């Protein structure tokens, strides 16, 4: 295993459990509709004694640390993005999940917001550009909020981003467009009710898959 950064090592040291066990519990908790007590029982079946309250502490402390680590090894995305948003329930409250993919289907970034408006769209694009660099082209739906958000971003750029708005002409075209949407189920393999809380953990990365295989 690669050497951990001082920040990550400091957080893990305070949790007093093997890294593999903590990663498996956190991944299962954020990726699948499992309760904390479900995970306590599942670990017990594997001969590992861990209290559900301990798993809860891990689920609070580890995701922000893991997100930073995952971003460092995230592959570069293309310069043509397709952006959309959908309505998801997070802990009983409906939120808007903003997401974009590039031409190859690689996820650009996520953002959860309470409202679907110009400010939310602008915040998403600013975050995505800050983390991944600016795209040359962004394809959006007919949402006026997304268009206004992109225009606001372009006013502060020397080279504006080219904006394309998808137009649905017939059923066949609509089906093809929907399948290429970043919110379409084909881009959400393995999705579950809890995945909306931490979408980035839907697919394991940075060696997390090996950890899951080892423990299970």
Structure explained in plain terms:
This protein is α/β, with parallel strands linked by helices and 216 residues long. It folds into 2 domains: 6-73 and 202-215, no CATH class; 80-183, 2-Layer Sandwich (Nucleotidyltransferase, domain 5). Helices cover 44% and strands 17% of the residues. It contains 8 helices and 5 strands. The protein has helices at residues 6-13, 19-31, 36-45, 52-72, 118-132, 144-154, 171-180, 208-215, and strands at residues 80-90, 93-102, 107-113, 137-140, 162-165. The model is unreliable at 169-178 and 185-216 (pLDDT under 50).
The CATH architecture assignment of the largest domain turns out to be 2-Layer Sandwich
Euclidean distance between termini CA atoms: 19 Å
Beta-strand content estimate: 15-25%
State the major sheet: 5 strands, mixed
**Any idea of the CATH topology of the largest domain?**
Nucleotidyltransferase, domain 5
Low-confidence stretches: 169-178, 185-216
Arrangement of strands in the largest sheet: 3-2-1-4-5
Number of strands: 5
Helix content: 40-55%
Judged by helices, strands and strand pairing, the structural class is: alpha/beta
Instruction: List the domain count as a whole number.
Output: 2
Give the H and E element order.
HHHHEEEHEHEHH
Supply the number of helical segments: 8
Please write the CATH class name of the largest domain.
Alpha Beta
**CATH superfamily descriptor of the largest domain:** Ribonuclease H-like superfamily/Ribonuclease H
Mean pLDDT rating: 76
Gyration radius (Cα, Å) is 19 Å
Shape: elongated
């Amino acid at each position: 295993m690669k050497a951990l950064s001082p920040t990550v090592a400091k957080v893990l040291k305070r949790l007093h459990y093997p890294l593999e066990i903590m990663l498996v519990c956190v991944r299962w908790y954020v990726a699948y509709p499992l309760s904390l007590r479900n995970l306590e029982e599942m670990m017990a079946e594997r001969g590992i004694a861990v209290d559900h309250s301990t798993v809860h502490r891990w689920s609070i402390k580890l995701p922000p640390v893991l997100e930073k680590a995952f971003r460092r090894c995230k592959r570069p995305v293309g310069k043509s993005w397709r952006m959309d948003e959908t309505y998801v329930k997070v802990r009983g409250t409906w939120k808007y999940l903003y997401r974009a993919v590039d031409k190859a289907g690689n996820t650009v970034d996520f953002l959860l917001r309470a409202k679907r408006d110009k400010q939310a769209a602008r915040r998403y694009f600013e975050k995505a550009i800050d983390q991944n660099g600016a795209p040359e082209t962004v394809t959006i739906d007919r949402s006026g909020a997304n268009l206004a958000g992109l225009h606001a971003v372009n006013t502060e750029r020397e080279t504006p981003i080219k904006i394309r708005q998808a137009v649905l002409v017939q059923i066949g075209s609509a089906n093809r467009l929907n399948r290429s949407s970043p919110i379409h189920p084909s881009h959400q393999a393995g999705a579950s009710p809890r995945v909306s809380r931490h979408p980035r953990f839907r697919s394991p990365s940075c060696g997390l898959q090996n950890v899951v295989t080892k423990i299970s």
